[in-house]
Amino acid sequence: MNQEFEPAILAFVCNWCTYTAADLAGTSRMVQQPNVRLVRMMCTGMVDPKYVIKALLSGADGVLVSGCHPGDCHYINGNYKARRRVKLLNEILPQFGIDERRLRLTWVGASEGNEFAATVNNFINEIRELGPLDVRGMAAL
Amino acid sequence: MATTVRIEVGEHGPVPVLQDFFRKLLADESLSGIMIPVHLFGGGMPMPTLVTDPAQLDRADPLAPAFPMSSAKLVSRLSKGSAGERFAVVMRPCEIRAFMELVKLNQGSLEEVILIGMDCPGAYDNMHYRDFLGEREPMAASADFHKALAEGRKPASVELAGACKVCEHPAPQGTDIVVGLFGGDISSGIQIMAASPRGEALLGAMGLPPQEPDGKREAAVAALVSEREVARDAMYASVQERTSTLEKLAQYLGSCVNCYNCRVACPVCYCKECVFNTDVFEHKPWQYLDWAKRKGSLKLPTDTVFYHLTRMAHMSTACVGCGQCSNACPNGVEVVELFRTVAARTQKSFDYQPGLSLDQAPPLTVFREDEYQDTVSHLA
Amino acid sequence: MARRIGVYVCHCGSNIAGKVDCPDVAAFARGLKNVTVSRDYQFMCSDPGQDLIIRDIHEHGLDRVVVASCSPRLHEKTFQKACARAGLNPYLMQHCCIREHCSWVTGDKAEATAKAKHIVEAAVLRVRRHQELHSREVAVVPDVMVVGAGIAGIQAALDVARSGHRVILVEKSPSIGGHMAQFDKTFPTLDCAACISTPKMVAVAQEPNIDLLTWSEVEEVTGFVGNYTVTVRRKARYVSEDICTGCGACLEKCPTKVLSEFEEGLGMRRAIYRNSPQAVPSTPVIDAEHCKMLTKGKCGVCQKTCPTGAIDFTQQDRREVYHVGSVILATGYDTMDPTPMTEYGFGRYPEVYTALQFERLNNAVGPTGGKILMKNGEAPKSVAIIHCVGSRDKNYHEYCSRTCCMYALKYDHLIKDKVGHGAEVYNFYIDMRCFGKGYEEFYRRVQDEGVTFVRGRPSEVVQENGKLVVVGEDTLLGTRLRVPVDMVVLCTAMEARADTTEVARVFGVSQGRDGFFLEEHPKLGPVSTASDGIYLAGTCQGPKDIPDAVAHAAGGAAQALALAARGVVSISPTTSWINPDICVGCKMCIGLCPYSAIEFDERRHIAVINEAMCKGCGSCAGHCPSGAAQIKHFRQVQVFNEIDGLLDRKPDIMALIGDIYETANRAEA
């Protein structure tokens, strides 16, 4: 059996932009690798840093947070708050060996189905290169 | 020019003289009380005490190298809402900075509080203060402590608390009055400075002999800070090496039993109810078994590393390095060393200095449209 | 009490089943904790599909439902309604997507099936922690407020009033009509602006359902959709509206002259003034900053002159509070001040005018009585009109102001008409934008009138030998030009009002990148905003001409009326909720909320969500360290469970493939 590492990636995406873009990518049948699974949030501003920590400690090798472009947030400015929270996490997590490339923040607008598919595929490839985060074997967390 | 006065210290040493000063301050009709460490029982720990009767200041000892808890949390309780009267509090620089952070979070107010900052050369953690005291009379021991430091001797065989050894804020800022202990011989005199208009008014009314500032205090503080920065950087390097992977971090936190004492002791952990005590982390029995099956084995209690990582996300930008977390840990986990190392990076990244100014909002509570563009990735 | 969960895996014809082994996923779900029933079916959204769910709820006593099919953005409501029909609270259903994000985008069937299983497991784990939620219905106050009484505000007010609903029309200047009242003729029909707008203004004055509040401004708005409380500052007019007959005797006697805003600085007005003889209302106002009586206690001539005793120097500003169900913002635009564009000489050379100033020169009651005259009293023999001054310019406004090409053509015609056919008229343009009905035809007509069009933005206007020389380039011919003219008219950009940011804050709306109020959706939502119950009308949303402003206003009125006519509004329950036992009152959520939907209860020292204003965006919940603030239906336990379900049960997803084949083989056996 092929035991090569396949990343497990969670994407916290906002309902109005990136989730819609994901729908569009689906409708347009843009093939993506299966490693990304979506968690639907109403806004990236809803993404609590604990969700990212939970994902990484529960076996995700990478986390994507994706929402509306600046200025376009359905709730006006949730994406700016998300940006600060992701920045904070990317100052803390790398100190413990969690490469900052494992947590990414992107803006993918509602009409950007192809950008969504490209983002997903590129991220998966990158994480595959980086290797597993390997917490799944850790009993103590 | 801010008022600087000098109180003369005689044969009874600095502690009674300071008590006298605080008695005089308490006599000001605008002040109803003063919170100050007091040796309430024979030996043991001096506890922050709210004194209204000047006579009961006779066992007050703000010079004691004891730091049982951060009184920032106590001043928060005294000023969250209005007491209706003004009172003074005597605190260390780290307690003052922590209190500033709490004021920003609506957990206290400066309106009725006169802040008196003590210069702080450091203190012992709770276990070691007992060793330091031995059988000695506490106030005499306090005087000896400062005498030894002035003479360049180690005051006792035990070490100062880990947090104090790397503290680069020995001088208080943002207070009304400063009690200056650095740069002079406090067995002969202590200089006291007004640092705000309210402080000016109070100090001015006391009619104490003025002293020309001679720059010695500033020089002494600068020298101490340099020393501390070296120790601090060594600590950073050591902690970074010991926690460079999640596995190493888990090991570093190996004796943690999720008692959450560090959180209770932390002055800037201000939540009434920590999320780790709520249903979010109340897992069901079958969930434990599921996770144990997933991994093969599961350390109990769970969420140890999760808790510390979350606390870093929630309060590292506000961490003032007071060390009460380590002080409170029953199992000797080096919490403050870890948190200071993390905080150094998070505070720097947001250019945030906790406790410095009420105008600096906690980093996650504000935002601008155009900032931190390099946090955003372009993966498409 | 153990959960009883029903799981439904949709084939969606072959859309899902073509890649995902639906029976296998249903079988997998059957093995999950507390799943009572697990089915797969061809088309879950069909009637029989929904009936499956309804029947199972009744027969199996299901208390939670999971549907795995298309995107919830399509059918979440469908399945929520189905559950409701079965007597199960609609929010106890979780709809997860195994089509757009799974079957339609995954190449390999085994991978698609494995992914679908994760998605279903996540939904099953999440739905366990769903709670019953109930939408709230709130009554809508039937009255509507319109802010701004330019042509858009007037149109909106008339449309709403004629339906029978009461309108409060607030206008900050002394009379209604907005910028249109300053115009002379309107393109392309060359109707006189006053002639076509006066009937509407009079209709406003006479409409019993419209309360007209001029010389008034909105100070504060609180409340939520259907229930707004608006505080209006009625500025002191110093003239009693009830007593004044509009005779105008006071206007002639006032000794104080002030530069007139209505005349765009080209003429003077008195300290007691009205914008024009046709002003609605015709009651003048007294400018408190310049009136001698109000500043120095002297004069008072107007009061002595007034035949009815309407002048009252003791008047004070007062505040009035109104309750309305919705607000239509029709606050209009400002024209850009071209002074910073020093190359065009506005403010330095007397004969350089802005477009609005040129309108006033043409207007029959303007400073020159409608004649196009220079400041020396003579008619210009040549006029240059420069397009795109401040528009399509990355140094000022990147957008196109939409109306300038057309009014430039209008000016061309007016100059030829009033000054004479011999007048030389030059247009310096980048593109000619003549998009509307009759616009292109009008362009043709003006070209035939002998107007010269030069394609190229001039670099500067200089003074030489008593003439203004426009220095430019004809880019079509590739030649540089220096065109001497008597008068230059600048087509100044239409920009958002200077106080747009403050006004936006008062009403809880936002600004787009161009500074105008932000509409709900650029294509499908031009008259509504992200704040329910606040609508937009006219140029405050973006540059537009009069026909578009009127259409836009009618649209805003229709939406306001839809709300008012229905009489109730349903508030989604997926709002935030702050647990009062956990909240410590740090107030950080209040600053983070984009809708000012969090109030602080001083007595209990806690933050409280205003459910009607909360949109459930999650900004508060994403921050609150103690988890006191959480969004209903997106609570942290729900999301944690979802995360758990999405992640591998075993370390390696490829190892699953072996398991999948094994399971399939066993099932077949």
From TrEMBL, chain A:
Keywords for the protein's UniProt record, in alphabetical order: Iron, Iron-sulfur, Metal-binding, Oxidoreductase
Keyword Ligase, does the record have it?
Answer: no
What's the domain of life for this entry? Bacteria
Q: Please give the Gene Ontology molecular function terms for this protein.
A: iron-sulfur cluster binding; metal ion binding; oxidoreductase activity
Which InterPro entries does the record cross-reference, listed alphabetically?
Answer: MvhD/FlpD
Taking every annotated instance into account, which residue ranges of this chain make up the domain F420-non-reducing hydrogenase iron-sulfur subunit D? 9-131
What protein is this chain from? Coenzyme F420-reducing hydrogenase, delta subunit
**What organism does this protein naturally occur in?**
Desulfomicrobium norvegicum (strain DSM 1741 / NCIMB 8310)
Highest lineage ranks of the organism? Bacteria, Pseudomonadati, Thermodesulfobacteriota, Desulfovibrionia, Desulfovibrionales
